[in-house]
Amino acid sequence: MNIDKIFPPELQELKDRWPWPIVTRNDLPKFSAGLIRNPKSIRNADSKGIGIKGGFRVGRNVAYKVDAVIEYMADKFKTINKEENCDEIE
User: Fold this and answer.
1) Which structural domain, as residue segments, surrounds residue 43?
2) CB-based contacts of 48, cutoff 8 Å, min separation 6
3) Could you tell me which of 27, 36, 14, 17 has the C-alpha nearest to residue 64?
4) What's the chain's average pLDDT?
5) Strand order in the sheet with 22-24
6) What angle do CA 35, 39, 44 make, to 5 degrees?
7) Is residue 39 classed as helix, strand or coil in its secondary structure?
8) I want to staple 63 with a disulfide (CB 3.0 to 4.6 A). Which of 22, 39, 45, 86 is the partner?
9) How many CB atoms lie within 10 A of CB 38?
């Protein structure tokens, strides 16, 4: 039985809009709507063993499954409490 993981809705939307089952490291800024700005940061995290899990190499390109990217982003995801950090606009 295959059950999709539940991610925060903002990240689920990124997953739903991406047309392919994988994301290359160079496409991470595009996939993440700019939340992951520099693919080199992910390369460095991968080399330290704290990056996106399950990366694989195709020639010179490194790619990840979409769910692995979303899971990595979800681990970093924090919501901002609107009452504490935002002034209400009337």
Assistant:
1) 9-82
2) none
3) 27
4) 84
5) 22-24, 61-65, 56-58
6) 115
7) helix
8) 22
9) 10
Domains in the chain, number: 1
Contacts of 18 by beta carbon, 8 Å cutoff, 6+ apart: 31, 66
How many CB atoms sit inside 10 A of residue 7's CB? 17
Q: Each residue of 13-44: pLDDT tens digit?
A: 999 999 999 999 999 999 999 999 999 999 99
pTM score > 0.85 for this model? Answer: no
In a domain, 23, yes or no: yes
The residue whose two tokens read 């009337």 is 90
Q: Is residue 35 part of a domain?
A: yes
**Residue 71 in domain:** yes
* String of DSSP letters for 23-37: EEGGGHHHHTTTSS-
* Structure tokens that stand for 86 in this block: 């935002």
- pLDDT confidence of residue 65: 97
Strands 22-24 and 61-65 turn out to be antiparallel
